[in-house]
Amino acid sequence: MNKSTFVVDRKELLGGLTIGKALVHSTRIGPESIVRLRCRNKSDLTLEVTDHQVIYEWEIHPIEFQNDNDTEQQLLLPLSTIPLIAKLHADAVELILGEDELKITATEESKKAEYRIPRLQASFPQIHTPENPQIKLVFSRPEHYWAIRAALSALEPPENTITLSTPLLSALTIFRPPGSEAVVIAGVHRYRLAASSFPATEIQGNETNPPYWVYIPYYAATVISHGQKILSALSTTQQEQQEREVIEKLEQEIEHYDTYEEDESLEELPPSSAPPIETVIEGQIVSSSTSSTEATERVCSILSLTMTTKPPKGKKRLKITVKCPAVDIGQPPKNYLDYVPPNYRYEATVQLETLKNCLERLEKIGGGAPIAIRFDDTPPTLMLSTAGERGIAGNESLEVTIPGETPNYTVHVNPQLAIKALKGVENLTRKEGTEKVTLRLGENPLGPLAIQPATSNSESESVYLLMPMRT
After folding, report:
1. What is the pLDDT of residues 129-167, one digit of tens each?
2. Are 18 and 140 within one domain?
3. Domain of 72: which CATH number?
4. Are 193 and 299 within one domain?
5. Which residues does residue 188 pair with via DSSP β-bridges, in sequence order?
6. CB atoms within 10 A of CB 239
7. Is residue 258 part of a domain?
8. pLDDT of the residue at 69
9. Quick one: which of 60, 105, 157, 255 has the most CB atoms within 10 Å?
């Protein structure tokens, strides 16, 4: 009987499984999803999770292994086995891959736990990717990491069932507009946009001729978002106490695999500097059109996205790969390009935490009703107000810095979207060493409200756009 034995770091195994859980619940498929343990050679072990649309791979580094097989070995398991891993309280876990079952054992002091999971009789889907993708983009700078994080913060699950045919309801998109020397990383969700732009010369890869658009739909972007957090947490923990906190949070997520809430507290564990993560995106051209500038715009569908840590000496490299089938997603939208990079007439600077707390209070008072925002220059003040049902109303004023003119109109915003925008900008302010944000408005009261860190210590320009409401 062929068997392969691997002793693996339980923390590493927990991290891989929680990212798989994020994929499963982003597509709302749940228990139908499949876990595959795959051994391609004697020392190589990969954990894969699929929801029958996307395949996610997590590279595992065995501490010890005993494998006499010269051929590839794989074992399919139901996702419902995931909570078992959280109950094995030991630093290392032994995985024995047999022909018909997976045996999991863990020993800690005098306690020993053992589980046997029978092979799942199912087929694992195949997503074939070309050996030479038409588009390849490499993002390796710390600013790129934070730009992707900010873009992902704009996304939310579409209200309808997520399918491959509706990727633009909520998507991470990377594009180089016609006639531009910049590459933009943006998260788009209906009337909300979080975008960062970089000189095209910073982006490595095989794509040098503009313009192009690469779309990463919500169900894949969710895996990327959670994957970034796990990679960041696992690769930057330097102290034993921090490492225990990471493991405890991973355990909590795994034990409740049938529900999914992205753990924002993981974001607090890494240091303020970006972890050394390289992101490689490979795509296929699915359509093209000629723009007004007579340049051919190529719309690309993601085929694979790989995130790899660049560990310091003594740390293990961690690697995630997400694979998707190429899908024709139509022509790129034009309506938000006019605001990247934005050109605004008015601006004001305010404490981020103070503004966020104010919006949260008014959101509760008004029951989600629009919040009116206007500026006063005697003294410089930001006025916020809302009116809920049964005559309930709230008004607050905040001190701000207004370096130039003051707009003479009122902007109405959705409080939930505004709060989410501030949370999205929060990481950028922490990274750039400031506690303040700058609000920018144009001459049109129906134009977007831009939210940015008050200072910029990098060459990138990151902006969170919030479209106002019509009242």
Report:
1. 667 778 888 988 877 888 888 888 778 766 544 444 444
2. no
3. 3.10.150.10
4. yes
5. 171, 193
6. 8
7. yes
8. 67
9. 60
